[in-house]
Amino acid sequence: MSIETFNVTPTDTVEARAVVERATGSATPRPRRRPSAGAMLGMAWLLVLFFLAVFADQLSFIYGYEQTVQVNGEAANRYALGPGWTAWFGTDGLGKDVFAKCIYGARTSLFVGVVATLIGLLVGGLIGIVAGYRRGATDRVAGIVTDALLSIPAIVLAIVIVTKLSTLREDQRWLDWLDRRWQITLTLGILAIAPLARIVRAQTLSLREREFVLAARSLGARTGRILWREILPNLVPTMLTVAFTGLGILIAAEGALAFLGLSVETPTPTWGKLIDLNRDRIDDGWWATVFPCLMLFMTVLSFNLIGDWFARRFDIREATI
Amino acid sequence: MRYALQRILQFLIVFFLVTFGVMVLLRVGLDKPGDPARTMLGGAPSQQQIDDTTARYHLDSNYFVQYWYWLTAMLQGDFGFSVQNSLPVRTLIENRIMTTVLLGVYAVTFGLLIAVPVAVYQAYRRDRAFDKVSSGMSFLVVSVPEIVIAVFLSFLFVVTLGWFPRIGEKVYPWDDPVEHFRNFFLPSLVLVLPLAAVTARILRADMSLTLQSDFVSLARAKGMSPRRILWRHALPNSLFSLLTVIGFQLGAIIGGAVVAEAYFDLDGMGSLLVVAAFGSDLFTVQAIVALLVITVVFANLIIDLLYSVIDPRIRVARSLA
């Protein structure tokens, strides 16, 4: 799962699959309005995770992430507790509750993922829709810029940008708000721009040739109105699908960056950081590494399942028009 | 021919744009005279050192002049000097490039060796048990972030089974094939699994589509063996998306290599990049990014030109364009 996956899923694969399914009639020709079982599970997982992450401070069964777990009135030692009733996911190398750290880690991951996706959708969507609609020179310039951005391996670009932002912040006063969390968010947002612009552009190119656009144009609608009222609404399904798949991808990327040492400031926990800190002691306490991995995997999988369902569903809607 | 020239021109534009962009990005915020040199030197350098470094690499001239010096030196094989390692960047890279190249070659080779037969069989026996199980598995694997794969593999093979060493050592196959296998197997597998899953999904979709076409029915009607139909007729006609995706996934492979090298402590370009980016080692970062961009863009260029070798229709279309 990497940012490059943006470029192939979902449009290319889904289109190919849809064509096959339409041709063979073998898979789900009937419109499927209800979510698939997988998508339901994904939504359930994400709802629970969002709820716990948002209300972590208020819920009494979640320890503070800096609070040492108490066993019989004494502080727990390194990896003293395995998964059990006292500490659900066991304790880590500092005697802290892994479950609590996973929940607080979800805050960072979800925040970074959601905001970065929004940045990507906004900027990438704008570039894509304008380039696809105006074509000509605008399209060519946008094409070169997206090509350039896509030619650098995403993680590599992320490493360069995050380290640059953090050194910049050290001696630029006006960047004080740009803490590590925002640095990572901004970086991943930048990375999401090019793939999204590419997808939206491709979609816009085919939409602009449709009759309803021609109709609007012949009625004298301005470009802004055509983009906003005619083309954008038709882009929503694609954008939603890509946004969900993209969320999974970006959260995985955030995990990878955290693992490489580019994470939020201590002591705030993140999944990637937990994995990095505990992996060398995996034989002492597998739980401290395995549970953050599971959280990461389940979350990415959930977003993918929902994205996949959207893809199928909207694809069918489009085919029935 | 004209098409090839166009593509090569595009290749050059992207290369210049990216390398220049990264150079500027790395120097943003270092506006005061001597700043870039100070960053490169790290620690607390003397004024003499700063002046020397500035003069030697023309760090006080404008970006275009600097870029010109960098580019001409680069083309002559001089990648600059890494002051922090007191070694020429070229030596640093030469020491490590083989690791990453080997990982990449293994990833693509074995990824395809797994994906192609699986996808062909899936398409041939669509919706049967094997197809359903393996499609589900590939969907799952696509959703697993690289770090999670790395943790899972090392937990299984290193901690539990003890088959492979915990810390990877850089042993080349021509020195000691057995040790090489022991050290490179797990990091390669981290790259192979996601690549195999992504490519299998793409190829399965394309292959299913091809198997619906008339020429396949004809081949079947005249009694051609399924094996020959699948491998000699259907597969070559289904490679289009697969090739494109491999081109896109190259960046993902490099990104995965960064993570795998970090996880298994292999000395490769990825770990070099992380250290260099953290230490603002400008020339090292620039050189690595330039090399990676050349690799990715060049591979895509080759793939693009390969289309016309594979498919005569594309050759004709391009020669007419």
- Cα-atom radius of gyration of chain A: 23 Å
One letter per element, helices H and strands E, the order of chain B comes to: HHHHEEHHHHHHHHHH
What's the architecture of the largest domain in chain B in CATH terms? Orthogonal Bundle
- Share of helical residues of chain A: 55-70%
Query: Could you name the ranges of chain B where pLDDT drops below 50 across 5 or more consecutive residues?
Result: none
The secondary-structure class of chain B comes to: mainly alpha
- Summarize the largest interface: chains and residue counts: A-B, 59 and 65 residues
Compute the separation of the termini of chain B in Å.
Answer: 11 Å
Number of strands of chain A: 2
Strand order of the largest sheet of chain A: 1-2
Count all strands of chain B and give the number: 2
> Helix proportion of residues of chain B, in percent?
over 70%
What is the spatial order of strands in the main beta sheet of chain B?
1-2
Average pLDDT of chain B, rounded to a whole number, is 85
